[in-house]
Amino acid sequence: MEAPRGAPRPWYRVLYLQVLIGILLGVLVGWLWPHFATNDWIKALGDGFIKLIKMVIAPIIFCTVVSGIAHIQDARKVGRVGIKALVYFEVVSSFALILGLVIGNLFQVGHGLAAKPDAAAVATYVKQAEAQKSVDFVLNIIPDSVVGALARGDILQVLLFAILFGFALMALGERGHRLREIIDDTAHAVFGVIAIVMKAAPIGAFGAMAYTIGKFGPAALGNLVGLIALFYATAALFVVVVLGLIARLVGFNIFKFVVYIKDELLIVLGTSSSESALPQLMEKLERLGCSKSVVGLVVPTGYSFNLDGTNIYMTLATLFIAQALGVELSFTQQLTILVVAMLTSKGASGVTGAGFITLAATLTVVNPVLVPGMAIVFSIDKFMSEVRALTNITGNGIAAVFVSWWEGELDHERLHANLNKEIDPSDVETAITTG
C-alpha cells in the first residue's frame, strides 16, 4: 500500500538507508567470508551497477549541455559562465594542492615505513601516464567521430560536441524549437532510466564493498594506515574549511549541503566512483535552485577540471613516497608538484584508476626516482579512491552553486527550502514523476 502523498516514506524505502545497509552488509561479508566475497559474481554486482550508470552518463551530459545552451538567448553568457567556472576550478584546485602539501610536510607519516616496492605491479599505470602528454591530451578532446565518443562515454569529447551542437541549435532560433523539445524530452526519459537503475544501488554497493574488504582486508592496511588516516583527515578539512567558507560566502551551511546530497555520497562511497552519481547530482542541483544552464556546463566540466580530492591525494602521496624511499624533495621540487599535478589531474576522471595514473604522471616529472615507489601505495589505493571520489563530487556540487550565485541565477528561496528540508529532497524518481 502506497503511503499518502506528503507522508514520510517507510525507512526501508529510503534510498540512502538502503545503500548504507548494503555497504554495512558488504563490510561484514567481506570480513567474515573473504573467499566468498572475492567470488567473481560478487565483484560483478558492483562492476555491473557502475556499468549501468556509465551507460547513461554520455546521453545525460549531451542532452543537458545542449538544452542548457540552446535555451540561452545570449551566446556570450555561455562563454562567461565557462570562464567563471574555469577560474573557480583553478583557484579551488590550488587550495587543495597547497593543503595537501602543507599537511604532508607537517605529518611525515612516510618516514620509517618498511616497504617493498613492486615496480611490475604499477607498470601498466606508468605506461598510460607516460602516454598522456599535454599535446595528446588536447588532441584527445577532439573525437574521431561523435558516435565513437558517445559509445566510449568519453566525457570531454561528448562535452565538446554538445557545446558545439548547443551553439548551432541556438543559432537556429525558432526553427530549432521542435528539436530542443525532443532533446528535453529525451533527457527526462534518460533520467527515468536512472530512476530504474538506482533501485539496484544497494546491491551494487554491497558487491563493491564486500569484494574490496574480502580482497584487501584490515591486515592489508598494515603500516600504511597512517597515510589513509591523514588523507581522510585532510579531505575532511578541505570540505569543512575551504568549501565551507565558499558555502558561507554564498549564504548556506556546508553541512546542510552534505546532508542534502547524502544519497549521492553513499552511492559514491559504495562504488568508489564519483561518476556513478553524476546524473542524480545534476538533477538535485537544479532542484536546489541552481540555473539549469550553469549546472549543465559546470558539473560535467568539473568532472575533468575540478578534481579536489585527486589533487589532495597527489600531493600527499608524492610526499609519502619520497619520505618512505628516503628521497629529499627540495622546495623547488615541491612547487613543481603543484604545477605538474594541476595539469596531470585534468581529464583523468574517465580513466580507470585515474588517481593512480595521474600520480604516475606527476612523479615522472617531479623526480623519476620516485616512480617505482608507487607500488608502496598501490595496495591501499582502493581505500583512498573512495575519499577522492567523495571530495570530488562535493566540490563539483559546491562549484555549481557558487557559479550560479556568481551569475546571479541562484534561487536562494529554493536553496534554503531544500537545505532546511521544507521541500522533500527525495531521490530522482520523485523529481521525474512530479516534474
Question: TL;DR?
Answer:
This protein is mainly alpha-helical and 435 residues long.
State the helical fraction: over 70%
The averaged pLDDT comes out at 78
Structural class: mainly alpha
Order of helices and strands: HHHHHHHHHHHHHHHHHHHHHH
Tally of extended strands?
Answer: 0
User: Quaternary status of these chains?
Assistant: single chain
Characterize the main sheet.
Answer: none
**What is the CA-CA span between the terminal residues?**
23 Å
Query: What is the CATH homology-level superfamily?
Result: Sodium:dicarboxylate symporter
**Rg measurement, Å:** 22 Å
Looking at the overall shape, the CATH architecture is: Orthogonal Bundle
Note the beta-strand portion: under 5%
Main CATH class: Mainly Alpha
Task: Find the CATH topology.
Answer: Proton glutamate symport protein
Shape by Cα distribution: globular
Tally of discrete structural domains: 1
Note poorly predicted spans. 1-6, 425-435
Number of helices: 22
How would you describe this protein?
The chain has 435 residues and is an all-alpha fold. It has 22 helices and no strands. Helix 4 (75-106) crosses helix 11 (225-250), helix 4 packs across helix 20 (381-406) and helix 11 runs parallel beside helix 20 (381-406). The longest helix has 32 residues, at 75-106. The protein is globular. The protein starts with 14 loop residues before the first helix and ends with a helix.
